[in-house]
Structures are given as structure tokens and as C-alpha cells.
Inverse folding.
């Protein structure tokens, strides 16, 4: 089984509020169609969820947020999720919409529910979930990042490979020359940040990837604009991106 995170920066234009990159999403769907193994998709918030989270001053640490903000963030994620589902359907894939409230209780994963997701994926359906604003009791809400969801799912489901599709070729050892790091073991590379990201952007992604690789699972950062690279990686032909090789 393969876990794939479609980053917000690849499925939306992060510079422009509420702007899906429909052509890119469709190209990604077409490539995913070429994968014969069960897959689970997680997607980020991009210029939907993050845009509204910033507007309403909501952050991952959680708190008593403006209910209007919570409602709008959740609604915007459903909108973005629908765009992804529509694209998968149009490309003859069978997505199974799975809001994170289906398998999270506050900030805790529900193990039994997550185990069920594997069965859905093995039944030729593609579970599709996403980062979201989640209630966690006592009037508090937090923003659950899709990156964090990847770690929760990886820990319980032990996929063969975790893929993060980004708007970059991978991680760079030097941001100026954009020299790509092909393989990482323990070292943490230097990272550039995007201000529209309430869940910690690339730093968070690298943190989660490191946690997952320590579980004995390979993690691959790849350019989502070149979706054929995802297919090649899944088929073990070539890793054109950054591979966090597990121990
Ligand atoms: O883009 C965050 O998910 P991420 C989703 O995967 C929201 O960090 C609601 C901002």
C-alpha cells in the first residue's frame, strides 16, 4: 500500500486565495490511475484552508477560535476536497471521501477506524482525506495538518512507501543553486518557508517525513508537476526527488 500526500502548494496556487490548479490535479489523477497497488490520498489546505486559517488567526496549537473562522475553514476544505474527488472520478478512479473526523477523535487517531481505511483501499476504492479544523473539546479547535495525518496513518498501516507531492523537485542542499538532495538518512536540510502556511510548511513536512522514516518506511518528496515521477517511484524504477531512506 502507498500513502500519497498532495501538498497544498501543488493542488492550489498558494499566492492567490481560493485558486485550485485544476490542470495539475487532473495530471496527477491520470498518473495515479497507472498505479495498480492500493493507495490512500491525503491532501493539504493550500490557498483554501490556509488562507482562511490565517485570516481568522487560527494555528495548529489550537484554542478558542472564532466559530465563524472554524466554519469557513471547514467549508473551504470540503470545497477543495470536492475538486480533488471530481478530478479522480473524471479520470475513472473511485475515490472514497473520508473527512478526518471519520478517524480522529480530537487530536487522537482512532486505531480501529484507521485499520478500516486499509480495507477500503484494498477494495479498489481510494480513500481521500485532508487537513482540516477539528474540534477537540472544551470549546477548542485545532488545525490538523495533512502531514500529521500521514504520520498517524503510516504508524498504524505501515505502508510500503509514503510520497509527498510538492511544488518543488524535492529538498535542496542549497536554496540558491537549487541543488537537489537525492537521499537523506538523519540529517535535516535547510528549508525555505511560506508565510501563508499555519501548519508549518516545509519544516513540518520534513519533521513528519523523518518520523515516518524512523518507523522503517521510505518517504519520497517529489515534484507533483512531474507526476510520472510518482509512478516511477512506486514501480521502484527511479527516485527522481528526495528519498528519506528508512533504517
Ligand atoms: O496543508 C492544513 O493541512 P496541510 C489544512 O496539510 C488547513 O498542513 C485547514 C489549513
Amino acid at each position: 500500500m502507498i500513502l500519497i500526500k498532495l501538498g497544498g502548494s501543488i493542488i492550489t496556487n498558494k499566492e492567490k486565495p481560493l485558486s485550485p490548479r485544476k490542470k495539475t490535479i487532473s495530471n496527477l489523477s491520470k498518473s495515479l490511475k497507472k498505479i495498480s497497488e492500493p493507495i490512500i490520498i491525503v491532501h493539504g489546505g493550500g490557498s483554501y484552508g490556509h488562507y482562511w486559517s490565517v485570516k481568522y488567526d487560527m494555528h495548529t496549537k489550537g484554542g478558542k477560535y472564532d466559530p465563524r473562522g472554524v466554519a469557513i475553514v471547514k467549508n473551504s476544505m470540503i470545497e477543495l476536497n470536492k475538486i480533488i474527488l471530481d478530478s479522480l472520478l473524471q479520470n475513472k478512479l473511485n475515490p472514497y471521501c473520508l473527512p478526518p473526523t471519520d478517524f480522529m477523535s480530537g487530536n487522537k487517531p482512532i486505531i480501529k477506524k484507521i485499520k478500516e481505511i486499509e480495507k477500503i483501499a484494498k477494495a479498489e476504492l481510494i480513500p481521500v482525506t485532508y487537513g482540516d479544523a477539528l474540534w477537540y473539546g472544551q470549546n477548542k479547535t485545532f488545525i490538523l495538518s495533512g502531514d500529521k495525518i500521514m504520520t498517524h496513518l503510516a504508524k498504524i498501516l505501515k505502508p510500503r512507501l509514503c510520497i509527498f507531492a510538492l511544488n518543488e523537485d524535492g529538498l535542496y542542499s542549497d536554496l540558491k543553486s537549487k541543488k537537489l538532495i537525492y537521499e537523506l538518512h538523519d540529517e535535516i536540510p535547510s528549508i525555505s518557508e511560506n508565510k501563508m502556511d499555519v501548519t508549518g510548511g516545509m519544516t513540518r513536512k520534513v519533521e513528519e517525513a523523518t518520523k515516518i522514516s524512523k518507523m522503517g518506511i521510505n518517504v519520497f518528496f517529489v515534484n507533483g508537476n512531474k507526476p510520472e515521477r510518482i509512478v516511477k517511484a512506486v514501480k521502484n524504477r527511479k527516485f527522481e526527488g528526495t528519498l528519506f531512506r528508512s533504517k
